[in-house]
Amino acid sequence: MGVEPVIMSAGELESERAGEPGRLIRDRYRTASQVVQNQGKMSCLMINDLDAGLGRFGHTQMTVNNQIVVGTLMNLADNPNRVSIGQKWRESDITHRIPIIATGNDFSTLYAPLIRDGRMEKFYWQPTREDIINIVHRMYTKDVGYLLRKFQAL
């Protein structure tokens, strides 16, 4: 597709240092904006398994970093062209609007205002059998010969 993604994982959404994950999200968002500015390529911020990092499961507590990350993502959704550097806002500093793509298994565990219509577009994908076959084939292309030889005797 020609998109240069900037990728984060759920593990980066927590830190011993308060505010660090929020800063990291802003930095990665600005990096994606710089890809557009400097390389002329489309870019996006991709956060894998968002629900694993921010979801509420059972009686788990929400940490300060969880709250900051949710606030940061909501701010980016509402003001995508104004992203602070640290704690400073520069009047002339405008970033490109960058899509944020988040993957997950159960977004119902996320803070409801973050995933409301208008702030987040949701795409639920239920792979077909053909999709699954294609995924497995691409994942294990190098192993097909070995598997056929190994299980031919059965």
Q: How does this structure look, described?
A:
Belongs to the RuBisCO activase family. This is Ribulose bisphosphate carboxylase/oxygenase activase, chloroplastic. It is found in: Plastid, Chloroplast stroma. Its main location: plastid. GO terms for molecular function: ATP binding; ATP hydrolysis activity; ribulose-1,5-bisphosphate carboxylase/oxygenase activator activity. The chain has 5 helices and 3 strands. α1 packs parallel to α3. The protein is globular and about 70 Å long. With 154 residues, the protein is an alpha/beta fold. The mean pLDDT is 88. α1 (20-39) links the parallel β1 and β2. The chain has one domain: 3-Layer(aba) Sandwich (Rossmann fold). The longest helix has 20 residues, at 20-39. 39% of the residues lie in helices and 11% in strands. The relative contact order is 0.16. The chain has a 3-stranded parallel beta sheet, covered by helices on one side. The protein starts with a strand and ends with a helix.
Portion of residues in helices?
Answer: 25-40%
Please report the distance between the alpha carbons of the first and last residues.
41 Å
Largest sheet: 3 strands, parallel
> Any idea what the CATH superfamily is called?
P-loop containing nucleotide triphosphate hydrolases
Function: Activation of RuBisCO (ribulose-1,5-bisphosphate carboxylase/oxygenase; EC 4.1.1.39) involves the ATP-dependent carboxylation of the epsilon-amino group of lysine leading to a carbamate structure.
Organism: Aegilops tauschii subsp. strangulata (Goatgrass)
Pfam families: AAA
Main location: plastid
